[in-house]
Every structure is written in structure tokens, then in C-alpha cells.
Specification:
single chain, about 425 residues, alpha/beta, 4-stranded mixed β-sheet, 23 strands, about 30% helix, about 25% strand, globular, binds shikimate-3-phosphate
């Protein structure tokens, strides 16, 4: 579906964002393998998370919708999943495929996981390799790509140093580690999001976390206990509205109940450094996760360098930061972000190509990009999203201040993480 942008005058209002995507996946997974009922409030009803839900329904887990965003899950316990009668389609969701690979490597049955055209081109060897070291039997196209077939096996603990800062790989190993013989030890590379660790602890699993080293403490038998989970608003979705307010003159927005876990909130740090007028208030906790309300006003921005340790904490927001950088005074440099090349699209290429089509001077680098600001978005062009939801929404933000309208192709990809994006935008225009 083509989306035609239209310029906005000032944005005003208060919005509560839908539930966090990463936390919604994890809530379902842990609730499914827990003993007893769990209740998930604020579950993100987007394509990615619904694919995780369908996977567990296919494996015999009863999940009942109680209301909008509220689900009850009858946990089947660690050993209660059943072999699915068909292949499991993870759609566009890397989180579903990688986390399930870890969980299913230890089950007593056979599973085939596949995905859409995009997901079948994303690397799965990053989970297959360490899981194989634990004794898993996994076959993949070219040893790397989905469809992947998994024959569950008894697993042994290993000590594994992550070669990339990836929460998906870390989480896959933690899920496998619930089942393996001995104590699994993971040495993280940097600070990737820690929702799995926090939620495992809430479900009663003992973890020993020392800096970047995570160990699952082995008791005789690990039992997860059903929980009430309140999913905070997704900071990655809030980021589009924060950016829209920063760029659109005279704007002021309040976003409520936003997750501000420090392993996810690098975006807020960077925009503060760029000069954003931002207030984070009403800071509190929901279960294991911190959340807050955020007030943001239109601001004059300056260029920054984004690199190193902070990258994993804002990895999904980098295309959007590139849009902000185009309007900031000076040259913005993004580096150490080679992971962007293996996301839902090659986000270095898709972002730079889109910026250049809008008349912004930008350059691709192997592990990042350079954006020369401040420039105007000219419009009167077409933006290829490569079916990537984050590219679609980042350019929709640029569209609010573009001189001429432009077309964003395949805009339906927003359903992956934020089906209500358009209606939220309509509320504040
Ligand atoms: C996610 C982790 C990140 C992120 C993705 C969701 C997760 O990927 O880009 O959108 O839920 O664990 P990596 O862990 O592979 O960097």
C-alpha cells in the first residue's frame, strides 16, 4: 500500500503507546512454559507478536483474549508443549524465530520454522551455532537461513561469548539453558536489551548476573510460575512521536506509560545531547520494568556522533535518528552499527537511499552512515521501504515537515510493530 505524506502544523496532545514488542513476545513465551495461568495486560497486538501467539497455539497452548490487549495464557509447564502439526510461520519476526529456536532445541519433538521473504534472508546461524554446541540438532538452508528444522535433544550447558550484541541470541540461549544439564554461562557483548533476564527472574528463575556475564543457577528442576504481566508502552514506537514533535514547529506532546529500561532508552540520551527539550517524569515500575511519562516540545537540534556501547540500546531507532540528523545543525556520524545491515532490511542502505531521494546529503559506511544537516526534505519522490516497518515510520515522520508530499511504498509493514500508527498520528495533528 502506498502512503502519501502530508505536512502537519504543530502536533499537540497526549498519547499512551501500545505495549512493547520485545516484552510482549517474552511475556507469551514464558507464560506458555510456566505452571498455571498468566495474565498479560498491554500485549502488543501487532503481526510479529501475533505470530508468536499462533506458534504457541499450534503447540497446544490455550491463550484466551479477555479484552483489547489483555490475554490469559494457560501455562503448560516446561515439558508440556506439543509437536505442531504443521510448519510454524514466524512471518517477519526475527524475535519469534530466534527465541523459538532456543526453546524448541530442547523439546522432545520436531519443528520446522519458516518466515516471509525478508526473514528467510536474515542470518539464523547466530543462534544455530551456539545451540549446536549445546547438542542441538538444527538444519538450515545453506546452514544459515530459514526454513530451519529442529529436532529437540537433551542439551548440555556451555560457556558462550556472544560474537554480536544481540538480545535475540542471548534470549535463545537463556531459553535453551532452562532445560540443559549444568549451568549455562553467557558472556554478553555490550548491553543488549535485558527483558528476558528481568522476566525470567519475575517468573522465579534464579539468574546470576555479574556485569555482562549471565548464568542460570541450576536447581534440581526449574519451575516457572504463572504471573500477572503489565507490558509497558513501547519506547521504539514512542520514538516516532517524540521525533515528530521535535521537528514540527510549535509542537508539544505528552506520551504516557513508556518503558524506559536503560538497555532500550539510548534514543532519549542521544536526542537530549542533540538539544531536545524533553522531560521524563512520573518514573515508576511495572513488575520488572521501569516506565515513565515523557513531555517533548519542538526543538532546535545539533549534530552528534553515535557510536560504541550505546548502539545496542537504540539500534531500532537509528533510521529515525538519521531523519532527525538531517534537520540538525552539523554533520552526524553513526558508526559501530553494522548490525543494521541484517535487520528487517539493510537499514544503512534503505535509510541513506531514502534521505538522498528527499534531497538530503548522506553517505553509507560499512558500519554506519554520515548525514549532513541541516537540510530540507524536498519531497516529490517515492521512498522504498524494503517492506521494513521502521523505515516506513521514520520516513512518515520526515513527511510531516517535507516541502512537498512524497510516497512511502509498502506502508502496510507498520502492522509488524505498530498497527495503530496512522490513527495515533491523526489524533495529534
Ligand atoms: C529484539 C532485539 C533486537 C531488535 C529487535 C528486537 C528483541 O535485535 O533489533 O527489533 O526483542 O530481542 P538483536 O537482538 O538481534 O539486535
Amino acid at each position: 500500500m502506498d502512503y502519501r505524506t502530508s505536512p502537519a502544523a504543530k502536533l499537540k496532545g497526549t498519547l499512551a503507546m501500545p505495549g512493547d514488542k520485545s516484552i510482549s513476545h517474552r511475556a507469551l513465551i514464558l507464560a506458555a512454559i510456566a505452571e498455571g495461568k498468566s495474565r498479560i495486560k498491554g500485549f502488543l497486538e501487532s503481526d510479529d507478536c501475533l505470530n508468536t501467539m499462533k506458534a504457541f497455539q499450534a503447540m497446544g497452548v490455550n491463550i484466551e483474549k479477555k479484552d483489547k490487549d489483555i490475554y490469559e495464557v494457560d501455562g503448560v509447564g516446561l515439558k508440556g508443549l506439543q509437536e505442531a502439526g504443521d510448519i510454524i510461520d514466524c512471518g517477519n519476526s526475527g524475535t519469534t524465530m530466534r527465541l523459538l529456536a532456543g526453546l524448541l532445541a530442547a523439546q522432545d519433538f520436531y519443528t520446522v520454522l519458516t518466515g516471509d521473504n525478508t526473514l528467510r534472508r536474515r542470518p539464523m546461524d547466530r543462534v544455530i551455532e551456539p545451540l549446536s554446541l549445546m547438542g542441538a540438532e538444527i538444519w538450515a538452508r545453506g546452514n544459515k537461513y530459514a526454513p530451519i528444522s529442529i529436532l529437540g535433544r537433551p542439551l548440555q550447558a556451555i560457556e558462550y561469548k556472544l560474537p554480536v550484541a544481540s538480545a535475540q541470541v542471548k534470549s535463545a540461549l537463556l531459553l535453551a539453558g532452562l532445560y540443559c544439564d549444568g549451568e549455562l554461562k553467557i558472556i554478553d557483548k555490550g548491553t543488549s536489551r535485558d527483558h528476558t533476564e528481568r522476566m525470567l527472574i519475575s517468573f522465579g528463575v534464579e539468574l546470576d548476573i555479574q556485569g555482562n556475564i549471565i548464568m542460570i543457577k541450576k536447581k534440581e528442576d526449574i519451575v516457572l510460575k504463572g504471573q500477572e504481566i503489565d507490558v509497558p508502552g513501547d519506547i521504539s514506537s514512542a520514538a516516532y512521536f517524540i521525533a515528530a514533535a521535535l521537528l514540527t514547529e510549535g509542537s508539544e506532546l505528552i506520551l504516557t506509560d513508556i518503558g524506559i529500561n536503560p538497555t532500550r532508552s539510548g534514543f532519549l540520551e542521544v536526542i537530549k545531547e542533540m538539544g531536545a527539550e524533553l522531560e521524563i517524569f512520573n518514573i515508576r515500575n511495572t513488575g520488572a520494568e521501569p516506565l515513565a511519562d515523557i513531555r517533548v516540545s519542538a526543538s532546535k537540534l545539533k549534530a552528534v556522533t553515535i557510536k560504541g556501547e550505546i548502539i545496542p540500546t537504540l539500534v531500532d531507532e537509528l533510521p529515525l535518528l538519521a531523519i532527525l540528523a538531517a534537520r540538525a545543525e552539523g554533520v552526524t556520524i553513526i558508526q559501530d552499527a553494522g548490525e543494521l545491515r541484517v535487520k528487517e532490511s539493510d537499514r544503512i542502505k534503505s535509510t541513506v537511499q531514502g534521505l538522498m531521494r528527499l534531497g538530503v546529503k548522506a553517505e553509507e559506511k560499512d558500519d554506519g552512515m554520515i548525514i549532513y544537516g541541516p537540510g530540507d526534505f524536498c519531497g516529490n519522490t517515492e521512498i522504498d521501504t524494503f517492506h521494513d516497518h521502521r523505515i516506513a515510520m521514520s520516513f512518515a515522520v520526515a513527511g510531516l515537515i517535507s516541502k512537498e508530499p512524497f510516497i512511502i511504498k509498502d506502508f502496510e509493514s507498520v502492522n509488524i510493530s505498530f498497527p495503530e500508527f496512522n490513527s495515533f498520528l491523526a489524533e495529534i495533528i
